[in-house]
Design brief:
Strand 2, helix 2 and strand 3 form a beta-alpha-beta unit. The termini are far apart. The protein is of the alpha/beta class and 276 residues long. A six-stranded parallel β-sheet has the order 3-2-1-4-6-7, with helices on both faces. Strands 5-9 form a two-stranded parallel ribbon. Strands 8-10 form a two-stranded parallel sheet. It has one domain: Rossmann fold (3-Layer(aba) Sandwich). The protein has nine helices and ten strands. It binds NADP nicotinamide-adenine-dinucleotide phosphate (NAP).
Length: 276
């Protein structure tokens, strides 16, 4: 039996993850802004489900909940930074408050959760961090810049930390879902529309664009979180959904081609060796 820590467990992928883990007999420390949303699971699973209220943008509260979870549960094997949301709108249409709230939730909170759990994971001799990323950490869609900024940032942070903590037996796996049928798109914010950006207005995401299944995506997240890392197991970045696989591949190929074409022009910035 493993013990997991999950943020944003009230609905969507976080709730599905909590349900699937409990169903297979694991123990879950589930956190949610409104913990009563997990009352039904608590009634069904008793003390295999530990629940605390947590708005992940409250750094002090998040640290206190993490400390309490390790103190009360002992070992925690997997930490899933799942809470997140999106805001639609061109960069110029967004409010300052949108910028602050989205980066606080999707990026700063993941950084702070990681920093809060690391001393505990080191003390117990290892563990796994699972910051929930996205194909949106590689590809971009207009009118979704804040979300992309948060997920590209999350991956830069997570990849760096992975190298820092590998000697402690701590590793990092980044699930990268495509568009999944969760409550994400209904919950997303929409900035007030400015007529200059009419070319970006209109319907955002249709249900048929969301080709990912919530339960199958979570099953993939669990398989990835359970497996050893490559070369014997999963890659660090685990694509979930055919859309993610196709779009990320195409975008990486374009970036690789672009980088490889610049051998000569990039070298023009190098120090010119002094003549002998
Ligand atoms: N669905 C997709 O297509 C998709 C694709 C790639 C990646 N992802 C990522 O997957 C993760 C989960 O998304 P989802 O699809 O499950 O979305 P969702 O159905 O909208 O669920 C989002 C969860 O995050 C919680 N949350 C939001 N802000 C929070 C805060 N400040 N503190 C605590 N909890 C907060 C929500 O809690 P409340 O109930 O309190 O609002 C909810 O439990 C996100 O990181 C998202 O970026 C989703």
């Amino acid at each position: 039996m493993k013990t997991w820590f999950v943020t944003g467990a009230s609905r969507g992928l976080g709730r599905e993850l909590t349900e699937q883990l409990l169903a297979r007999g694991d123990r879950v420390a589930a956190t949610a802004r409104r913990p009563e949303q997990l009352d039904d699971l608590r009634a069904a699973h008793g003390d295999r489900l530990w629940v605390r209220a947590l708005d992940v943008t409250d750094t002090a509260a998040q640290r206190a909940v993490v400390d309490a979870a390790f103190a009360e549960l002992g070992r925690i094997d997997v930490v899933v930074a799942n809470a997140g949301f999106g805001v639609f709108g061109a960069a110029e249409e967004l409010e300052d408050a949108d910028v602050d709230a989205l980066l606080a939730t999707n990026l700063t909170a993941v950084v702070q959760l990681t920093r809060a759990v690391l001393p505990h994971l080191r003390a117990q001799g290892g563990g796994r961090l699972v910051p929930v990323s996205s194909m949106g950490a590689h590809v971009t869609f207009p009118a979704f810049s804040l979300y992309h900024a948060s997920k590209w940032g999350l991956e830069g942070f997570a990849e760096t930390v992975a190298a820092e903590v590998a000697p402690f037996g701590i590793d990092v796996v980044l699930p990268e879902p495509g568009m999944i049928r969760t409550t994400f798109f209904d919950a997303a914010g929409h900035a007030a529309e400015h007529p200059a950006y009419e070319h970006l207005h209109g319907p955002r995401v249709a249900v048929e664009d969301m080709t990912g299944d919530q339960a199958r995506t979570v099953a993939g997240m669990i398989r990835a979180a359970d497996a050893p890392l490559a070369p014997t197991g999963v890659p660090r970045r685990v694509l979930l959904g055919s859309d993610a696989q196709a779009l990320v591949s195409a975008s990486q190929r374009r970036r690789l081609d672009e980088a490889e074409e610049q051998v000569a022009s990039a070298a023009e910035a190098d120090v010119v060796p002094a003549a002998c």
